[in-house]
Amino acid sequence: MKTKTLFATYGSVIASFKDVKDRQNLLLEDFGEERIYYAPFDYVNPKARLFIVGITPGEVQMNNMLVEAARLIHQGFSDEDVLKRCKAVGSFSGPMRKNLVELMDEAGIAEFLDIKTTAQLFSDKQDLVNLTSCIRYPTFTIKNDKETNFNAEIKQGTKLFEFAAPLTLEELNKAPNAVLLPLGPKVQHYLEKVVKGTKFENRLLPELPHPSRANGERIAYFLGQKAKEKLSRLTDPEKLDNSKKNMKKILKSLKVKGSKLREKIDSKTVGKPDY
């Protein structure tokens, strides 16, 4: 599938968008237990040094994206500009964004990117990040003929995995220097399968606790705001400690390699005239 072709195919539907519940005309795939709908989440930032990866856009994010895309279409923006401008609409907004920023700063990502705080990734340093999902387009689980946001493991060998994996690799190839930050274990498991044996395997970071409110205890422990002895049985402190430790180790290693590569490039240009 080609991004522009998909956007062009659904452009008239998006332009007349009114209600996210009335989305049948945006249906991409129906796998029986899951349905995938189109929304313009296609743009990939080729300069990104960090991919923040969720599992799939939810209904609220789908609605926000389609509302913004329709607005931009009516204002006469080109397809490329619509895709670029509405990619970040609603991504990790509100309390979730605050949690995500604190988690990333604690994990050493701001230092890796040479910025003061990862809050800048949502303001003046958006050029450093690409916000994406395992399943690029909004996916819903079907139960009793009702659709709910998909939030399950993406198992290898399933139609869902076969749909998602090529699109993930397509995104990675557009920004080959980025590191991959999975939000939660399900995203981690999926990415491990997708990048295994590829050049991206050593750029996959350990999972970060998902920044949702429902994950409050894990977030608090990761940030050092809750003592180990006060944790419930549902939280594994050793797993979180190892995740943070390994993440910082990988980021440090990648930064050192990047610095050496830049030094090597600079040394080759010393003494050359400027044209």
Walkthrough of the structure:
The strands form 2 sheets. A 4-stranded antiparallel sheet has the order 1-2-5-6, with no helix packed on it. It has a 3-stranded parallel sheet with strand order 4-3-7. It has helices at residues 3-15, 59-74, 79-85, 95-107, 109-113, 159-174, 185-195, 216-222, 237-269, and strands at residues 27-30, 34-37, 50-54, 129-133, 139-143, 146-149, 179-182. Helix 2 packs antiparallel against helix 3 (79-85). The model has no long low-confidence stretch (mean pLDDT 91). It has one domain (3-253): Uracil-DNA Glycosylase, subunit E, CATH 3.40.470. It is built from 9 helices and 7 strands. The N and C termini lie far apart (42 Å). Strand 1 and strand 2 form a beta hairpin. Helices cover 44% and strands 11% of the residues. It has 275 residues and is an alpha/beta fold.
Task: Please give a handful of descriptors for the protein shown.
Uracil-DNA Glycosylase, subunit E; 275 residues; 4-stranded antiparallel β-sheet
